[in-house]
Amino acid sequence: MHERIPNIGHIVQVGIRDFGAREATRIEDWGDLTAFTDHELAWELGSGEPWMRIAARVLRPLPKKVWVSFDIDGLDPALCPATGTPVPGGLSWRHAMLLLQLLAEGHQIVGFDLVEVGDAEWDANVGARLLYKLAGWAINTRSGPLRPR
Question: What CA–CA distance (Å, rounded) separates 112 from 105?
């Protein structure tokens, strides 16, 4: 699939979980893909690593102009229990928002998509809030990254 997508500089996956050996091999063999598993992130947080330092490392491989594809399954399923594939673990709301804010402060968000939002009212609420935040960051980075706080 990578060969059919022109102008892709690098792909970063954050918080992936519930994947097998085949997917792990595919990630390792991809070359222009960096994956940060949920287990890896949880281990670093549990070892005392500050989230902002982890987030900066996650974003480092990205080019200045980015497309954000946000799969809501990546969040803790307590936030969106009716999603298509609820799996224990996942990013907290705060960690996801801080990661996206840091992204906007160092990159231009040229577009985004939000997928796997369940049809329950609570999931729709979380999805709408996330969409609102993504739209705001995309609009505010049209002329370049935001100034860091």
Answer: 16
Query: Residue 28: is it exposed, middle or buried by C-beta count within 10 angstroms (0-12/13-18/19+)?
Result: exposed
Q: Looking at residue 146, what is its pLDDT? A: 77
The hierarchical CATH code for the domain 2-140 is 3.40.800.10
Mean pLDDT, to the nearest integer, of 128-143?
92
86-93 long-range Cβ contacts below 8 angstroms, 24+ apart: 87/17, 87/18, 88/17, 89/15, 89/17, 89/38, 89/39, 89/42, 90/15, 90/17, 90/38, 91/14, 91/15, 91/38, 91/41, 93/126
In the numeric block, the tokens 């949880």 are attached to 42
Q: Categorize the per-residue pLDDT at 24 as very low, low, confident or very high, splitting at 50, 70 and 90.
A: low
Contact 92, 140 (CB under 8 A): no
CB atoms near residue 15 (< 10 Å): 24
Please report, for the chain, the start and end positions of each structural domain, with discontinuous segments joined by +. 2-140
Q: In terms of Cα–Cα distance, which of 104, 97, 92, 31 is closest to 65?
A: 104
Phi, psi of 103 (to 5 degrees): -60, -50
| Residue 62 pLDDT class (50, 70, 90 cuts) | very high
